[in-house]
Amino acid sequence: MMNDYLKSKEQVIKETESSLNGLNDAEVRKHTEIYGKNEIAEEKQKSIFFIFFEQFKDFLVIILIAAALVSAILGDIESTIVILAVITLNAILGTVQTVNATKSLDSLKKLSAPNAKVLRNGQTIVIPSADVTVGDVVLLEAGDYICADGRIIENASLKVNESALTGESLSVDKEDAVFKEELPLGDRLNMVYSGSFVTYGRAKFIVTDIGMNTEVGKIAGLIKSAKERKTPLQANLDNFGKKLSIGILLICALVFGLSVYRGEALMNAFLFAVALAVAAIPEALSSIVTIVLSFGTQKMSKENAIIRKLQAVEGLGSVSVICSDKTGTLTQNKMTVKKIFVDGKIIDAGNGDFEIGHQKRLLLSSLLCNDAVCKNGEEIGDPTETALVNFGSKYNFDFEYIREKYPRLSEIPFDSDRKLMTTVHNVNGVLTMLTKGATDVLIDRMILSDSEKSAIIEATEKLSEQGLRLLAFAYKEIKSEKVCLEDENELSFMGLIAMMDPPREESKAAVAECISAGIKPVMITGDHKVTAAAIAGEIGILKDYSEAAEGSEIDDLSDEQLKEYVPTKSVYARVSPEHKIRIVRAWQERGNIVAMTGDGVNDAPALKQADIGVAMGITGTEVSKDAASMVLADDNFATIVKAVNNGRNIYANIKRSIQFLLSGNTAGIIVVLFASLAALPVPFAAVHLLFINLLTDSLPAIALGLEPHSNDVMKEKPRPINESILTKSFLLSVISEGLIIAAAAVICFLYGLNTSNETGSTMAFASICLSRLIHGFNCKSEKPVLFTNKFFNNKFIFGAFGIGVILLSLVLFVPGISGIFKAVSLNVSQIILIAATSIGTFIIIQFLKLIKKLLKKK
User: Which of 200, 211, 688, 801 fits a disulfide with 159 by CB distance 3.0 to 4.6 angstroms?
Assistant: First the structure.
């Protein structure tokens, strides 16, 4: 129901047709019919078979299937089997990747509490949470998961951890109050939400929303609506595939027409066209890209970046905006004491003197008026209280020894209405009452002069502006250990302790590296604006406070206005899941590749919408991990920057592999076209081209994908989203290198034709195969590599070359195998010519690279 936090509990009870004693059986049946079950709707899943057959929709695959059918009709069974094996392998790889994709809604369902305590017919009963309906009165106590959204109607110091929804780790003190203005979810203190859990106290609430209408349900809806975008490489390869398909069809039609015009038999003309199609299509391209990306994921996992979706590896290299959560990613997710205010002075926590005087008394009091326990690395209690215990330990104040020395005689527990906690101790023979709480509450309960009060207010404002959370401490000497609420007055001021969740040590350097690499870091958090701005300023994200905004400020902006607004802001505070997804979309609409980090359920829609969703491995919910492309094993922003470095290097390596494959295939096309135009026999059998494309080409292509990484890539700006792989210089290299390799194959083909058609075909096959193996060394760099260290820095390229030569030798010289691949015996002079022309291609291409380098210098 809309804005229930703005309504009185009486109004909510009336609107939900309930009562303080809950629903009766008839009302439950009626409400269940109206509102349905308290469940998250499941997303309809595609069957594995459907996903498998979807892989065959690609146009290049359809051309290959046609080639396989024609080969089968012509009796070329070997080619048919090889082509179909390649297609099936690619389809299986694609199916596995798709099946392993997001299952976010399944994890959302796991957030639901299994059972709930409700009032039905005036009696307390336990029911499955799925049976909870609107109007039910639910009873809560510490440790309970909240089963639905609702308005609090009774409250006894209830504290709720809403981190799954807001991203903030501190528990929220709830209260039974009525608010007069619209508030972000984190400030709706009279409401509880499904997916949260109770850390302290007790309460009753009346259910106002269930299932898909809860805040978690709305997030499930956003996850469904969030569309995963293709990475730049996917988009480039799709675009390339379309252009290649059109080109193949036109060239095949031309060759077919020429053959028929020359009086060739129809089936022979078809054979020529099939050979050309097989030569043109880089059959192994998608498999090689997948393999290279897989190797990239292994390297990144060693650096704490676990990749869930292979395409994310390459996408990381194009990222131009990183939208990061604050808590636990940029910060340590651990409250830490930073400053104290004692004797009218603000003192850095690291410069305190806690041996004597008021500073020591303040620290002792913070450990005594405290319920937290920190022992053997385990912290139990409220994060602000554990921060105080850890601060004491830093200065060798053992909380157990101190509490034993000054035992607690009585107490008034913390209450969210009072915002105070009081304990009584015998301090050196004097009964002393210690009280801690919010400064604005305690200041009116203390005996202060005007100047003292002004000094406290000034210090509070100054520390708050730095994004610090404050606790005030006061004391009073009393005569009886029994105390009541009235005793929490006429107190003496002791001091203030200011704390914050500090930035990670690596965050500042990582942010600086982002900026130098042309990437804009943006903080998006559920925390307060002042706190967020303080952290962002400290680590370098925020240059000016005007760059910080609250989520509510974008509510009235249209999508077009938001598109113009986002470049002006670096910090967004008090945001909702809807705000996050809108911010990500706005950056994407501006043509940016966006990475989004998060750990809560509230982050999941934006993680899915982002080009690269990055979830936290330690603190992250299963929902956020399922929606993400990458999981950080160490929850560290600096790891994202390392991942970007890896992504850029991997993209550069994939581009090398693609250049290698396309230049080799271009050579094959040119040779087939030359034979067609010159009315010569078919230079290659389809099985020759498949052998080259799938075996001898694949190994060097994979090896090029494993070229050693360089940090130089981080000195470049992110490449534009619309930049094609097929740039002018890239195409020029592909065509020129293809022509040189083709020339070598044509020389061998013509020489072999003097003996027989089969010899010419075998020589052309052997020449183009060996030339392409050697060409792998050319593709290592745009610059010449001969006589440089770069020639030797990749052992895999030597391994690929060696294995390729062995496979080619088996095909040429082993009788049983040569028969399958339609190869005939060659004499010594023919073999020498093949070797000489192949090595010659390498020398010529290296010489052209040297000229290009010299011209660039001029």
Answer: 200
**Two tokens, residue 137:** 């009165």
DSSP secondary structure of 134-192: TT-EEEEETTPBP-SEEEEEEEEEEEEE-HHHH---SPEEP-----SS---GGG-TTEE
What is the value of pTM for the model shown?
0.68
Query: Is the sign of the CA dihedral 288, 290, 294, 299 positive or negative?
Result: positive
Q: Is 435 left (phi over 0), alpha (psi -120 to 50) or beta?
A: beta
Task: Give the active site residue among 325, 382, 527, 697.
Answer: 325
Among residues 197, 196, 241, 496, the alpha carbon closest in space to that of 352 is found at 496
- Secondary structure of 787-800 in HEC code, one letter for each residue: CCHHHHCCHHHHHH
Contact between 281 and 64 (Cβ < 8 Å): yes
- Do 744 and 841 touch, CB atoms closer than 8 A? yes
Provide the 10 A C-beta neighbour count for residue 843: 12
- Looking at residue 694, the DSSP 8-state letter turns out to be I
325 labelled catalytic:
yes
Instruction: List Cα–Cα distances, 592 to 236, 313, 316, 518, 587, in angstroms.
Output: 15, 17, 12, 12, 6
Q: Report the run of H or E that residue 235 belongs to, with start and end.
A: helix 232-261
Burial status of residue 781 (CB atoms within 10 A of its CB: 0-12, 13-18, 19 or more): middle
pLDDT tens per residue across span 296-308: 878 888 888 888 7
**HEC string for 710-746:** CHHHHHCCCCCCCCCCCCHHHHHHHHHHHHHHHHHHH
Neighbours of 156 (CB within 10 A): 17
Q: Contact 452/472 with Cβ under 8 angstroms?
A: no
Q: Which residues, 6 or more positions from 494, have their beta carbon under 8 angstroms from its beta carbon?
A: 342, 358, 361, 362, 365, 473, 474, 475
Cα–Cα distances (Å) from 230 to 193, 237, 587, 628, 639, in that order, read: 34, 10, 15, 14, 23
* CA pair distance 440, 471, nearest whole angstrom: 10
Where is 562: in which H helix or E strand? helix 559-565
Token code pair at residue 77 = 């069974």
* Predicted confidence (pLDDT) per residue in 192-224, tens digit: 998 888 888 889 999 999 988 888 888 777 776
> What is the model's pLDDT at position 562?
96
CB-based contact 767:838 (threshold 8 Å): yes
Where residue 376 falls (left for φ over 0; alpha for ψ -120 to 50; beta otherwise) is left
